Amino acid sequence: MDTSIFNFAVSSKNIGEKRRITVQFLDKIASGQLIAYVSPVIFDEIREAPLKKQNELPGLMGQFFLESLPQTDEVEILADRYVEQKIIPLKHYDDALHIAIASVYNLDAIVSWNFEHLVKFKTKREVQAVNTLMGYKMVQICSPQEMI
Question: pLDDT tens, 37-72?
Fold first, then answer.
């Protein structure tokens, strides 16, 4: 999961349907129907968030068993490739890291509400091409709605 999942769970903006779906998705994790992983990137993003989010998100995340997967040299090499191939802009390198961590650790999917850089056809197609060329399995990039 990336940070957007937790952001939508605590957002005060009018995102009723997305919040409802996010809560359903998190309920599946809480019940053990889905196993969730995060990376150090999520904690970096929280530290850079507005103070209100810095205070809210760790408490929410603490309600779930979330295994944190380390960011390794292998992860960074793959993330760099996504940027070099212009799949993810350098400005959004954290998004490349999220995908690379899911790929390197052989996860089934990365779940996000980020439709700008992650959950979109071009990204899905081009990530799969790079992963195939570099010997990684295909990782699904999807929204929480697709997971429930």
Answer: 999 999 998 999 889 888 999 989 999 989 999 999
CA distance 82 to 59: 32
pLDDT tens string 74-92: 999 999 999 999 999 999 9
- Closest-CA residue to 81 (of 128, 16, 14): 128
Instruction: For residue 31, give both structure tokens.
Output: 């019940």
CATH superfamily of 3-147: 5'-nuclease (3.40.50.1010)
Distance CA 8, CA 24 (A): 12
Report which secondary-structure segment, H or E, holds 127: helix 121-134
Q: Would you say 82 and 113 are in contact if contact means Cβ atoms under 8 Å apart?
A: no
CB 117 within 8 A of CB 95: yes
